[in-house]
Design a protein that fits this description.
This protein is of the alpha+beta class. Helix content is 22%, strand content 33%. The chain contains 2 helices and 5 strands. A 5-stranded mixed beta sheet has the order 2-1-5-3-4, covered by helices on one side. The longest helix is centred in the C-terminal third of the chain and has 11 residues. The radius of gyration is 15 Å and the shape is elongated. It comes from Luteimonas padinae.
Length: 85
């Protein structure tokens, strides 16, 4: 099966397509990707939080999640104060 592993960075992203056996988990895909794991806070499959032992299906996209830098409500308040969206 083929799975894409994605790491979003502040101004770029890195995506790696990996080939895994049919019983692969999120942890297997992450290990096979070779992407840096420093600062990773968790995982998601197509935007839904997933545990490292969650099974994968062919065509899934595993996302490496980083912690939020700023609470979304606070970011919205700051943008409103500046008059930007």
């Amino acid at each position: 099966m083929h799975v894409e592993v994605v790491l979003a960075l502040p101004r770029a992203h890195r995506a790696v397509r990996v080939e895994l056996d049919a019983a692969a988990t999120v942890a297997d895909a992450v290990a096979a990707s070779g992407l840096p794991l420093e600062g990773i806070d968790g995982y998601a499959v197509f935007g839904l939080r997933a545990a490292a032992d969650a099974p994968l299906r062919d065509g899934d996209r595993v996302e490496l999640l980083r912690p939020l830098q700023l609470d979304p409500k606070e970011a919205r308040r700051r943008r409103a104060a500046r008059g930007t969206r």
